[in-house]
């Protein structure tokens, strides 16, 4: 499978994403923010960082870059798009995902390992995560507090769009396990069509034991499986 | 002419900065404060002779699309006859490469 990893000025997790995809046996290439085309691609990753210096609001400027028009079109056609950290912020600003990410409730930048509960396996981003598995992955953000109005939140729940929630080591959704004050401990969501997802934690930084955890690989394995199924369906 | 845009967090949105500043003010002995909300203030210099109604329409659109995020923020727009700020970027012609390289859709 071929992954397009976007690169904005001040992206800083782009290489991590490329490394993770290649480590797991697939190919990845970088796409510059001024490119209007994604090239031959099966999946787009909008990586973490501080695109455009986080000026105005995180992700606010990046969403207007030429490459995001291509991403929008790719997503509209059913292509898989994953936003990680700043990438999640860009996707909410672009309107590809509902809600917004605001300043952490304690005003601190959090750089630590957290635990994640997978809320549903019913998505191309979570299907291969073993049942009941609590993922240990890092976070690194100052604006990761997920917010949405009541109607949006109710819709997310009704459509089973909440993919990951912050939890303790035993999988309990406690307030102390919530690093940023996100509503309902929400760490990641998908759109209604389930082909666009975003999360604040960094699965790409936890894909090999050398880095302390390889739990993040399950997110990528889920994507690979979904893409394989898609290819098989197309061939049939 | 000058456009002034004040952006504030929506009521339902957590505003930890406002809360922290409120606590600090209370510690300093300022009584009677029941809320502090921290937002942004943006000033936009407009060319002389700009049509006020047209500018208001365009800037409302820009405020909705870029300057504020309607999910979490409210904004107020005011256009005044004040002279543009005497700031270098108000008069200096744009050099190639300095211009913002994106278009509003």
Q: How would you sum up this structure, described in words?
A:
The complex is a heterodimer of chains A (236) and B (105). By secondary structure, chain A is of the alpha/beta class. Chain A has five helices and eleven strands, in the order βαββαβαββββαβββα. Chain A starts with a strand and ends with a helix. The mean pLDDT of chain A is 97. With 105 residues, chain B is of the alpha+beta class. Chain B has a single domain (2-84), classed as Phosphoribosylformylglycinamidine synthase subunit PurS (Mth169, Chain: A, 2-Layer Sandwich). In chain B, 30% of the residues lie in helices and 21% in strands. Chain B has helices at 16-27, 52-67, 88-91; strands at 2-9, 40-45, 73-80. Chain B has a three-stranded antiparallel beta sheet with strand order 2-1-3, covered by helices on one side. The model of chain B is unreliable at 97-105 (pLDDT under 50). The interface between A and B is medium-sized, with 25 and 17 residues.
């Amino acid at each position: 499978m071929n992954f397009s990893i976007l690169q904005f000025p001040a992206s800083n997790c782009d290489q991590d994403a490329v490394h993770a995809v290649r480590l797991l046996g697939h190919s990845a290439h970088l796409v510059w923010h001024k490119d209007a085309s994604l090239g031959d691609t099966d999946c787009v990753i909008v990586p973490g960082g501080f695109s455009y210096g986080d000026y105005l609001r995180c992700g606010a400027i990046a969403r207007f870059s030429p490459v995001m028009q291509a991403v929008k079109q790719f997503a509209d056609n059913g292509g898989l798009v994953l936003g990680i950290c700043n990438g999640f912020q860009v996707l909410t600003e672009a309107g590809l995902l509902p809600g917004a990410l605001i300043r952490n409730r304690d005003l601190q930048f959090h750089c630590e390992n957290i635990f994640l509960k997978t809320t549903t396996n019913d998505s191309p981003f979570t299907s291969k995560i073993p049942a009941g598995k609590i993922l240990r992955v890092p976070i690194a953000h100052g604006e990761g507090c997920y917010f949405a109005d009541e109607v949006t939140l109710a819709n997310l729940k009704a459509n089973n769009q909440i993919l990951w929630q912050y939890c303790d080591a035993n999988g309990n959704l406690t307030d102390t396990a919530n690093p940023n004050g996100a509503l309902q401990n929400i760490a990641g969501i998908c759109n209604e069509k389930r082909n666009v997802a975003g999360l604040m934690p960094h699965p790409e930084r936890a894909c090999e034991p050398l880095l302390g955890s390889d739990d993040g690989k399950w997110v990528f394995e889920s994507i690979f499986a979904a893409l394989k199924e898609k290819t098989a369906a197309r061939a049939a | 002419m000058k456009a002034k845009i004040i952006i504030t967090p929506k009521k339902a949105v957590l505003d930890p900065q406002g809360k922290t500043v409120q606590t600090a003010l209370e510690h300093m002995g300022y009584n009677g404060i029941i809320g502090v909300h921290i937002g942004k203030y943006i000033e936009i210099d407009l060319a002389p002779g700009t049509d006020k109604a047209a500018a208001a329409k365009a800037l409302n659109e820009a405020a909705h699309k870029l300057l504020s995020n309607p999910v979490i923020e409210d904004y107020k727009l005011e256009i005044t006859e004040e002279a543009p700020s005497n700031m270098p970027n108000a008069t200096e012609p744009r050099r190639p490469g300095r211009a913002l390289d994106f278009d509003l859709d």
